[in-house]
Amino acid sequence: MATSSSQQKPFLYLFSISAAITLAQVPSSQMFTYVHEGEEPFFCWVWDANRGRPVGENTTLTFGTNGNLVLAEADGRVVWSTNTTNKAMVGLRLLSSGNLVLHDSRGWFMWQSFDHPTDTHFADQSLCLSSLTKLMSHKSETENLEGMYSMVLEHRVLTLYMDASTKPLPYGQLLTFTSPANVTLTAEDEGNNAWSVSLMLSTSGGRSLVQPKYNTTNSILRLQIDGNLVVYTYNEQVDSEPTDRTLVYFSDNIRGVSRCELPSKCGSLGMCKDEMCVAYPTPKGLLGWSEDCSPLKLGLCKAGAANAAGYNKVVGVENFLSRFVKGEGPVKVDECKSKCGSDCNCLGFLY
Ligand SMILES: *[C@@H]1O[C@H](CO)[C@@H](O)[C@H](O)[C@H]1NC(C)=O
Ligand SMILES: *[C@@H]1O[C@H](CO)[C@@H](O)[C@H](O)[C@H]1NC(C)=O
Ligand SMILES: *[C@@H]1O[C@H](CO)[C@@H](O)[C@H](O)[C@H]1NC(C)=O
Ligand SMILES: *[C@@H]1O[C@H](CO)[C@@H](O)[C@H](O)[C@H]1NC(C)=O
């Protein structure tokens, strides 16, 4: 457990892939006080309790005699709590799996951080249909807020969504299955010096994500700020930079999916081909892509004006929308033009 000195002062982060994970047994009523620390630790943050609700100086985290774990501002205002008052909780433990648990005298978990995932999924952690758990990306490196991307377990599919508008848009399908199931991230020794990290269904089957040649016990799956999905594995045998990116889901490697299918890859309207951002459309036709190209600043929208101004036809566009979103059809191009032209939120359409 550690505190952070970043400007937003998020609180209560846990490490998962540090070599020495502390098994903290905190006696009732013990109180932690928020302190400023000079340096960010080498290992990355993997869980936060109070995302979007940063706390100030002298904040306290208290495990009370009533069994409730409470994060409160210096003035006593409660920012976050486990809601376990009078549930006979006697201990708080950080397990080697990365799970923070509150347990009763028989050792049964009554609350666990695994039921409240943020952007990181640990080995042995499950996404459960019943509790609607999902991963949500962070907004940015500096803002501890929810981002645009989520990984959601649904009845027959594990889906990546981009939430850019009123309706979340799917941009990836990690697993599809025939009957409802929970999904667990597993790290396994497959024998013969082969290891795997997989997404396993509680029914049967699943999907192997990576098979490195070293111990994958300490692995996490993270939904990155840009919507990419990355497996990090901590390799004890290595001294410098022991944390490997064992899988980058949207990438050009064999196991991944084309980088072009990552919505954030080429900005709002950039065109992607063979893993590269190649062009973006303008009224003068296609121009070479650069980091700062962006859609035109539009004037005041008048419904129908787009039809008069005309459309540019861009051939051969690959877009994540055409893979996972069912279009409307059959329709004629002109019908699409007139529909888009009468909607001020419409900037273009795929046909
Ligand atoms: C935090 O606690 C220290 C020591 O008690 C005190 O000097 C300081 O003013 C407190 N800061 C805030 C913002 O309450
Ligand atoms: C505790 O209860 C409050 C109010 O119902 C809720 O907003 C909060 O999310 C709960 N906290 C946890 C950790 O479940
Ligand atoms: C999924 O997990 C929940 C909570 O642990 C459990 O109640 C449910 O039976 C599981 N469903 C399946 C299909 O395994
Ligand atoms: C793999 O790593 C875990 C955690 O460090 C350790 O407990 C386990 O014994 C290792 N397994 C093998 C076969 O080395």
TrEMBL record:
<dbReference type="GO" id="GO:0005537">
    <property type="term" value="F:D-mannose binding"/>
</dbReference>
<protein>
    <recommendedName>
        <fullName>Bulb-type lectin domain-containing protein</fullName>
    </recommendedName>
</protein>
<keyword id="KW-0430">Lectin</keyword>
<feature type="domain" description="Bulb-type lectin">
    <location>
        <begin position="1"/>
        <end position="115"/>
    </location>
</feature>
<dbReference type="GO" id="GO:0051707">
    <property type="term" value="P:response to other organism"/>
</dbReference>
<dbReference type="InterPro" id="IPR001480">
    <property type="entry name" value="Bulb-type_lectin_dom"/>
</dbReference>
<keyword id="KW-0465">Mannose-binding</keyword>
<keyword id="KW-0348">Hemagglutinin</keyword>
<keyword id="KW-0677">Repeat</keyword>
<dbReference type="Pfam" id="PF01453">
    <property type="entry name" value="B_lectin"/>
</dbReference>
<keyword id="KW-0732">Signal</keyword>
<dbReference type="InterPro" id="IPR036426">
    <property type="entry name" value="Bulb-type_lectin_dom_sf"/>
</dbReference>
<feature type="signal peptide">
    <location>
        <begin position="1"/>
        <end position="24"/>
    </location>
</feature>
